[in-house]
Design a protein that fits this description.
about 425 residues, mainly alpha, 19 helices, globular
Amino acid sequence: MKFLQRYPPLAILLGAWSFPLLLSVVATPALEDSISVYTYLIIAACIVAAAAGILLSPGGETSRSLPFKDGIVLKLGVAGALAGLLHWKLRGDSGMSLEETRIAHLAGQLGASVFESYLYQAGGACSFFSIALATMSARPIRVTALALGLSILGWIGLVINTGARVVVMAMLAVAIVGLVIRFPRIVISWRGVASAIAGFIPLFAINLLFVQRRMETLFANSDWGLHRAEKASSLLGGAGSSLLANDYLVSAVWLLLQFTSDPIYYLDYFLKYSSVSPHFGLYQFGLIANRIPGFDWYGRRLELDLLYEGIGISWNVWGTAIRDCIVDFGLVGAVTFFFVVGYSAGRLRHARSVSGQLLYIFVVLWLMYTPFHSPLTTRPLQLAILITIGWYLWTVFFGEGRGSLTVQPLKSAKVK
């Protein structure tokens, strides 16, 4: 554990991948084909590339987090929450159930105005900034809890209006990454792992209840119930036959596999059957792609999702960030991108500017998401990351630490 405590990005990367890989081996995906050795080799190459980037970056002590002004954190949190509430108010009550809302949202029937889209992106970015900067506070636990609470309160309406919880999940993930980076010796320990598991269980239970409400028709379908039972039995095995009578447990195991080992299976399916040409970074950076004439980001996303129709899935398919990088850069480019991100995380670990430490949180967040999908496709988070990159580069080339990738603390970051 002491080695991993010195390298929080590496600990998060390996921790994020360990459970999905374990389940993909011990639990058959209960689909048509098994996961190929070639797919596991690609996964290994990407993980090794990112780990090598982290370890090969310039050494030195990890910089201590800069205490950031609580007032700015809370102002950003309030701004983000108010934007979320206004967005909820503008969208109004559709009068549909959560399941109907989700179907309509995926079908593109819940169109948003240009103002609503900008409000969603800018307001969401404020919330992400608030949470990330809160972990750099002189009172990180209290201020992070407040910033996270404000953000969830403000954007819960988006969950109700669209049936999508990805933004709220990403906000929680930012808080987790920021606190792991802030307290590596406490969190990256056996006690920290046990605490994380204990905290995960109630969150997972809430998530399961949400999914059941969002998919009421499917959960009531007896044929689909058999599918869930078959999938659960792949993990529980014959010893769990008596447990399969418990529908809630079956649903919990199904959802666990859906979030962990299934993205690896979907990556395997992509590698076997896809012929998508490289998008040169525009798939993950949709905000930039939408401003390029002739590039249809939503059309490319639909093309990718339709690939999975053969296995009965045609929307919102998580295929790991490896798949998303292959879509953007090709296979060799994806491995290279993982190395670059890992190297960036290792380098930013020593950053002494607020912008550098903020970018460090977002880069490590990307590494944590790699077993599932690229978090860059979440537009408010993508906007926050693009702004942070610009802020960091400005600090490097024009600020107090121009000419150096690790600059001295900003005056605004000092504790008074």
